[in-house]
Design goal:
The structure is a single chain. By secondary structure, the protein is an alpha+beta fold. It has 17 helices and 19 strands. The protein has helices at about 5-15, 20-45, 60, 75-85, 95-105, 110-120, 130-140, 145-155, 160-170, 195-200, 240-245, 270-280, 285-290, 315-325, 340-355, 435-445, 505-510; strands at about 190, 205-210, 215-220, 225-230, 255-260, 295-305, 305-310, 335, 360-365, 375-385, 390-400, 410-415, 420-430, 450, 455-460, 465, 470-475, 480-485, 485-490. The strands form four sheets. Strands 11, 12, 13, 14, 15, 16 and 19 form a seven-stranded antiparallel β-sheet that branches. The chain has a five-stranded mixed β-sheet with strand order 1-10-9-2-8, with helices on one face. A hairpin with a 2-residue loop joins strand 6 and strand 7 (about 305-310). The N and C termini lie far apart (about 50 Å).
Length: about 525
């Protein structure tokens, strides 16, 4: 398939807000591409080339290259060129990258050049992200979208599912099962304003501690244990405490969902930054462990021996968890059996208060009837925290003044727009320590796509947890609202931009006050 076809569909998808039209456009593209080229088309439309980060920056793309007069560049040729680019290293690598880029861009038409530059700099985000591509793929293959979605959740990626589905048909989806040793996308929670609201929405439920740690998924097969984060990064070698805890369990095969946290000398939870630093440390793990010992805490189980529990209701999964995992390795919880009784809601509130007193950040209220919806932020899990926060993506930052001269300070914050892009909700420089300023300046400059001397625009990759006091109507921002008194709580390296909150979530949580 020619790259020009992908570019045309990309532009058409960006030009319409109708979901059915987007789905039809993508379905037509995937159907025409077939099993060989559709995976590449999906990867390029999602802005994620199979080669990952290729190491090409704006400095390598500044030189103008005369475009080709007509389309001839195929997806296969682009893939080959990107593979070659990704393999360049050592002395003279910068010059060699420029040479290879000139060859690639010289074979592309002007619209194709713009698309390729956007792909290489992380600027392709026109709406054909995984959620939309799943629907397009399902329509192309003539299968229910839910079946494709489930296969993607179990495989952890869309591209291999697309390749199998288009080559083998609907039967191939049955081959994507929960497999020990292959992580699945984690189930996620929405926000609720209060325990009473959450309990009222869910009915019979469990109220569990919300721990401020790193989400982990633990797989055990005999004496082999692997540990992944919520972004499916393998951190097994960095968390020996988790491996040791998993090996004490009676089951020979299991898949567990939980968190790792750490405690200070007084028995209080350490900060998220300390835990993230510990799990991110790749050198001298023994010294890191001595300084910040980790404590695994599990709250769900997806498989025990030969028994798969993904479709089992939460009450059944917890019963299996309680048999497998001792109390000291399980999250604390309170079950609400009769939510209509005021005493039950009061007890749930008391559980939240005790959780906060122990130094944790809130609770997650979980339906007792719900299956484990891997990869979904459904309504079966509702998180309640005393200070409401949003996970937003940094879209740009402004150079600071005074004592912040030379540092990127004022952050431009965006929520996902539900169509694969981001909508700006405001700016903030509050809550940033000197250490955070130094770190964010380094990380944002690594992702810079332009700098006019005042504002540095960046690839939308970094997620920040933002506290705020409500919404305010504003004509200055495209969504018509902005955040009141926004301040940075912390960065979330354990989350991807695809996990940031949507504008719909922001608007649903509270009506804006007048500007």
């Amino acid at each position: 398939m020619l790259l020009s076809k992908v570019v045309e569909v990309s532009a058409a998808v960006a030009a319409t807000r109708a979901r059915t039209e987007k789905t039809a456009l993508l379905a037509g593209l995937f159907r025409a591409a077939g099993p060989r080229d559709a995976p590449l088309a999906i990867a390029y439309l999602a802005g994620r080339p199979p080669q990952g980060r290729i190491g090409v920056g704006w400095s390598s793309l500044r030189a103008a290259v005369a475009p080709a007069s007509g389309p001839s560049l195929t997806l296969e040729a682009v893939d080959t060129a990107l593979t070659e680019l990704a393999s360049v290293g050592g002395k003279g690598s910068q010059e060699e990258r420029r040479r290879l880029l000139a060859l690639l861009l010289g074979a592309a038409t002007e619209p194709e050049q713009r698309f390729l530059v956007g792909l290489l700099t992380g600027e392709v985000r026109q709406g054909a992200l995984d959620a939309m591509a799943v629907e397009g793929l399902a329509a192309a293959a003539g299968v229910p979208a839910e079946e494709v979605r489930r296969a993607v959740m179990l495989r952890g990626a869309l591209v291999p599912v697309a390749r199998a589905l288009l080559a083998e048909g609907r039967e191939a989806l049955a081959g994507f099962r929960l497999t020990v040793g292959r992580p699945v996308q984690p189930m996620l929670a929405r926000s609720a304003k209060s325990v009473a609201e959450a309990v009222g929405a869910l009915g019979p439920c469990a109220v569990e501690e919300k721990l401020d740690g790193i989400r982990v998924q633990v797989h055990r097969e005999g004496d082999a244990v692997r540990v992944w984060t919520r972004t499916l990064d393998d951190i097994t070698d960095r968390v020996p405490e988790v491996v040791e805890a998993a090996l004490t369990l009676s089951a020979r095969r299991c898949v567990l969902d939980g968190e790792v946290i750490a405690f200070d000398a007084a028995g209080r939870p350490r900060t998220f930054q300390e835990i993230a630093g510990r799990t991110g440390s790749r050198v001298d793990v023994s010294a890191a462990r001595a300084a910040v010992p980790l404590a695994p805490v599990f709250f769900d189980v997806l498989l025990v021996d030969d028994r798969e529990l993904l479709e089992a209701p939460a009450v059944e999964r917890h019963a299996a968890l309680a048999v497998l995992v001792p109390p000291e390795l399980r999250v604390r919880r309170y079950e609400v059996d009769a939510p209509q009784q005021p005493g039950e809601v009061a007890a749930a509130r008391e559980f939240l208060e005790r959780t906060l007193e122990r130094g944790h950040e809130g609770v997650v209220v979980k339906s007792l009837d719900a299956p484990y919806s891997a990869g979904r932020r459904g309504a079966a899990w509702l998180k309640v925290k005393p200070v409401h926060t949003l996970d937003l993506v940094v879209l740009a930052a402004e150079w600071g003044h005074g004592r912040r001269t030379g540092k990127l300070s004022n952050l431009h914050l965006g929520a996902r727009d539900g169509e694969g892009g981001f909508v700006m909700l405001g700016k903030t420089f509050k809550g940033l320590t000197d250490a955070m300023l130094d770190e964010q300046t380094r990380r944002l400059l690594e992702r810079s796509v332009s700098d006019d001397g005042h504002v540095v625009r960046v690839r939308p990759e970094l997620v920040a947890e933002i506290a705020y006091d409500g919404l305010q109507r504003s004509t200055r921002y495209p969504a018509g609202v902005t955040l009141r008194f926004a301040r940075v709580v912390r960065y979330r390296p354990d989350k991807t931009a695809a996990e940031a909150d949507t504008l719909e979530t922001v608007l649903d949580f509270g009506a804006p006050a007048a500007d």
